[in-house]
């Protein structure tokens, strides 16, 4: 096992010690946050205080398990730690908006007292519908908090933001404040905000419009298209956000097609388009291109299409107007026109330029099989398949021959089976995520088919005996190059206290396995291995005692 460097060890030790100080002095910090603030600013650098802000707020950040502070603790802790040297507020997700949102807004207002240049702000404001009789009271409380946030955006909070997530609760007034005051915003996520309208989107994009311009934008389709066509060449009436925004997520709103037409016509810097909800983005993209921006091309690199029901003529148009497309999320459940030489060539040209494909499978995977056989997706480096059906399976040999250049493979609720053993290998595959794979499939990945494998994550596993044998005698690929291994076992009857008889995994097996792994730095779900809590604690102590550079959870 690799050892922690002295610097890393000291940093982690410092964070743990300061975290304990925060918890021990919780009440004092709540009462005298400003006094503690001067102490922390004097003794701790901004980078360490930024880490501490995140330390207790996310359960798992990809590296280490974190204790969670309630918001009532986190806000005064943050007041004590924050100053102008901190640029980042960690992702915040709250569900009790009536109670917690005013507290969060008090923190946002506090930030503005010191005018730090916050570049990232993420707030996932889900409202849990608990009591119908209190709905109006809750909504009034939420609206008051949103008014505070809107005022902060108008007074300067928006001007330095590069990334902003404000899901569920964004409305027209906040969207307009963001649009008119943002100077360098690149990512905006206001998804699931059901009160955003076309009027809000219009004011988000455009500066103050005169009567004639308003009439044109509110007129017939022909008038709207003519006005937007002029804007493509003369962009003086657009807000700065139209020149900086690269990614937008906007779905489940009151918006209609015309709002999306505004967005795609005006924001020519757009590279990533998030899930569009019910709107037919394919049709909107082709409308904007044909009616407004042609011969200019879109800069879009990533799009999501809710339904890939597309003709070969449309494929040709999409290839022309989306020359930079690299990442596609779609369903791919519809049939294609009868293939001929022309349609085959069009499909080959469109699909072969993709690097990443995320596929949502509803009831059949036959068209994806067709793509593998015809070589349409042989250039993919990343493939994700998610199925809503539990009885879909796919031939591993066909997948390997159809997508030989994969680096990342994520298969959810699709069974990979081996009919005939694959003749080739995934030479470049480094990351694999699978659900309940068959024994021969796991064995092929671990022993034969993936010479570059570094990250293996298996969920809903049902064979602890197989992994016990792997841990006792791990294959060379795990010992020499595996950096992350995560095994999530299925517990019978959903009983979290179930122990796999007769305690198949234990302290001795796991610690000896860890000793044999030369580069493994993340080992996941050991609390789900059916061991006693004492064994799990002893394993954690073993890692600390030997100063191993490993995260377990």
Short account of what is shown:
The protein has about 550 residues and is an alpha/beta fold. Helix content is about 45%, strand content about 15%.
Q: How does this structure look, described?
A:
This protein has 553 residues and is an alpha/beta fold. Among the domains are: 11-86, no CATH class; 307-447; 454-553, no CATH class. The chain has a ten-stranded parallel β-sheet with strand order 7-8-9-10-12-14-15-16-17-18, with no helix packed on it. The chain has a six-stranded parallel β-sheet with strand order 1-2-3-4-5-6, with helices on one face. A two-stranded parallel ribbon has the order 11-13. The longest helix has 20 residues, at 135-154. It is flat.
Characteristics of this structure?
553 residues, alpha/beta, ten-stranded parallel sheet, six-stranded parallel sheet, 18 strands
Uncertain residue ranges: 58-67
Give the oligomeric state of the chains in this entry, treating copies of one chain as homo and distinct chains as hetero: single chain
Percent in strands: 5-15%
Rg over CA atoms: 27 Å
Q: How many E strands? A: 18
Largest sheet: 10 strands, parallel
Query: Helix/strand-derived class?
Result: alpha/beta
Helix content: 40-55%
């Amino acid at each position: 096992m690799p050892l922690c460097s002295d610097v890393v060890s000291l940093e982690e030790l410092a964070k743990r010690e300061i975290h304990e100080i925060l918890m021990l002095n919780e009440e004092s910090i709540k009462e005298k946050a400003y006094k503690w603030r001067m102490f922390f600013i004097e003794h701790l650098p901004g980078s360490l205080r930024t880490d501490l802000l995140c330390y207790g707020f996310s359960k798992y950040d990809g590296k280490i398990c974190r204790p969670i502070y309630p918001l009532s603790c986190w806000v005064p802790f943050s007041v004590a730690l924050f100053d102008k040297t901190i640029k980042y507020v960690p992702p915040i997700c709250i569900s009790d908006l009536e109670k917690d949102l005013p507290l969060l807004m008090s923190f946002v207002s506090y930030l503005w007292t010191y005018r730090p240049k916050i570049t990232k702000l993420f707030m996932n404001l889900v409202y849990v519908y608990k009591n119908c009789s209190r709905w109006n009271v809750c909504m009034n409380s939420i609206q008051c908090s949103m008014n505070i946030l809107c005022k902060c955006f108008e007074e300067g909070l928006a001007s330095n933001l590069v990334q902003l997530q404000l899901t569920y609760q964004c409305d027209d007034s906040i969207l307009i404040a963001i649009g008119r005051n943002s100077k360098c915003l690149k990512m905006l996520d206001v998804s699931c905000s059901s009160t955003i309208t076309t009027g809000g989107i219009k004011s988000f994009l455009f500066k103050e419009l005169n009567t004639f311009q308003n009439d044109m934008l509110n007129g017939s389709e022909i008038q709207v298209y003519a006005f937007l066509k002029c804007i493509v060449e003369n962009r003086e009436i657009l807000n700065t956000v139209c020149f900086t925004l690269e990614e937008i997520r906007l779905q489940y709103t009151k918006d209609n097609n015309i709002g999306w037409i505004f967005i795609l016509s005006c924001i020519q810097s757009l590279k990533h388009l998030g899930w569009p909800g019910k709107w037919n983005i394919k049709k909107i993209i082709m409308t904007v291109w044909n009616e407004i921006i042609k011969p200019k091309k879109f800069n879009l690199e990533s799009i999501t299409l809710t339904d890939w029901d597309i003709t070969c003529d449309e494929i040709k148009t999409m290839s022309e107007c989306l020359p930079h497309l690299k990442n596609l999320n779609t369903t791919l459940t519809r049939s294609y026109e009868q293939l001929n030489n022309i349609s085959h060539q069009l499909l080959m040209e469109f699909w072969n330029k993709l690097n990443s494909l995320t596929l949502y499978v509803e009831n059949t995977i036959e068209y994806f099989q067709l793509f593998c056989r015809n070589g349409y997706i042989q250039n993919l480096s990343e493939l994700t398949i998610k199925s809503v059906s539990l009885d879909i399976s796919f031939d591993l040999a066909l997948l390997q021959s159809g997508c030989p250049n994969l680096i990342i493979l994520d298969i959810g609720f699709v069974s990979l089976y081996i009919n005939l053993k694959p003749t080739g290998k995934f030479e470049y595959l480094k990351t694999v995520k699978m659900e309940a794979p068959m024994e021969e499939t796991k064995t092929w990945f671990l022993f034969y088919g993936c010479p570059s494998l570094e990250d293996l994550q298996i969920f809903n596993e049902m064979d602890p005996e197989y992994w016990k044998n792997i841990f006792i005698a791990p294959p060379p690929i795990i010992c020499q190059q595996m950096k992350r291994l995560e095994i999530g076992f299925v517990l019978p009857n959903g009983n979290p206290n179930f122990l796999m008889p007769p305690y198949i995994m234990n302290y001795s097996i796991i610690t000896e396995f860890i000793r044999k792994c030369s580069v493994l730095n993340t080992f996941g779900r050991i609390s789900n291995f059916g061991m006693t809590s004492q064994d799990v604690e002893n394993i954690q102590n073993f890692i600390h005692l030997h100063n191993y550079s490993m995260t377990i959870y």
